[in-house]
């Protein structure tokens, strides 16, 4: 029997690349499984060995998005700056650098649907939970290390609650703001010409709000404009802005 043309990993790569292209050509709702197979150059049987439904496609692409985001976050947190500055700097990364696809936030919104997740396979749900947990542990580990290093000043009996609170607020800003900018409603007026995709400038309201919120916690050295300017230059050099 001849060896297969593509390995299992290569087939999965082809399928997800094709799925992203099909969504770009149609939408997150209207793409067809048959079109994915055609774009990938694979049979429907081969496609269904990896993804069993359209819901699987969306979750699988979300795994890719989360993996990219995790890599970017780890890279930013490894920079030689204070932790509060690096946390704010994550918001300075352009959406193009942070996420793979222009439909990333719409996809994230869809994944809030319990009905969608209920139809996805355990294989892809497990992978999504795994990478989401990796991001959570990355942030949590950095904050715990900051306590050990006396960079984040708090009593031992306050550490767990303080870290949980800080992570919740950061999550609310990072997830909530893009969804607001993509959903016009009376309580939030988007400035004409505003685009959520480009990297945010240092004087953007979201960056200012994140700095204000971050500096409300007991850091040994709060976020400074000078450090933000320096880390912005490094992000630009690395193609992240």
From TrEMBL:
<keyword id="KW-0238">DNA-binding</keyword>
<protein>
    <submittedName>
        <fullName>TetR/AcrR family transcriptional regulator</fullName>
    </submittedName>
</protein>
<dbReference type="InterPro" id="IPR009057">
    <property type="entry name" value="Homeodomain-like_sf"/>
</dbReference>
<dbReference type="InterPro" id="IPR001647">
    <property type="entry name" value="HTH_TetR"/>
</dbReference>
<feature type="DNA-binding region" description="H-T-H motif">
    <location>
        <begin position="32"/>
        <end position="51"/>
    </location>
</feature>
<feature type="domain" description="HTH tetR-type">
    <location>
        <begin position="9"/>
        <end position="69"/>
    </location>
</feature>
<dbReference type="GO" id="GO:0003677">
    <property type="term" value="F:DNA binding"/>
</dbReference>
<dbReference type="Pfam" id="PF00440">
    <property type="entry name" value="TetR_N"/>
</dbReference>
């Amino acid at each position: 029997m001849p060896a297969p043309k593509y390995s299992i990993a290569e087939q999965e790569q082809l399928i997800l690349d094709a799925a992203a292209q099909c969504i770009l050509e149609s939408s997150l709702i209207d793409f067809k499984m048959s079109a994915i197979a055609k774009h990938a150059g694979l049979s429907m049987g081969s496609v269904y060995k990896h993804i069993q439904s359209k819901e699987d496609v969306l979750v699988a692409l979300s795994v890719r998005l989360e993996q990219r985001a995790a890599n970017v976050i780890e890279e930013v947190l490894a920079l030689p700056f204070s932790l509060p500055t690096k946390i704010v700097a994550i918001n300075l990364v352009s959406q193009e650098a942070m996420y793979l696809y222009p439909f990333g936030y719409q996809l994230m919104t869809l994944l809030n649907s319990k009905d969608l997740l209920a139809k996805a396979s355990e294989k892809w749900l497990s992978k999504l939970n795994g990478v989401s947990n990796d991001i959570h542990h990355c942030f949590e580990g950095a904050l715990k290390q900051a306590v050990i290093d006396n960079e984040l000043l708090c009593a031992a009996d306050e550490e767990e609650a303080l870290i949980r609170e800080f992570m919740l607020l950061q999550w609310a800003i990072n997830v909530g703001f893009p969804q607001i900018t993509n959903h016009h409603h009376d309580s939030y007026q988007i400035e004409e010409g505003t685009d959520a995709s480009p990297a945010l400038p240092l004087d953007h309201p979201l960056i200012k709000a994140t700095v204000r919120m971050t500096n409300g916690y007991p850091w040994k050295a709060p976020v400074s404009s000078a450090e933000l300017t320096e880390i912005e230059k490094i992000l630009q050099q690395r193609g992240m802005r």
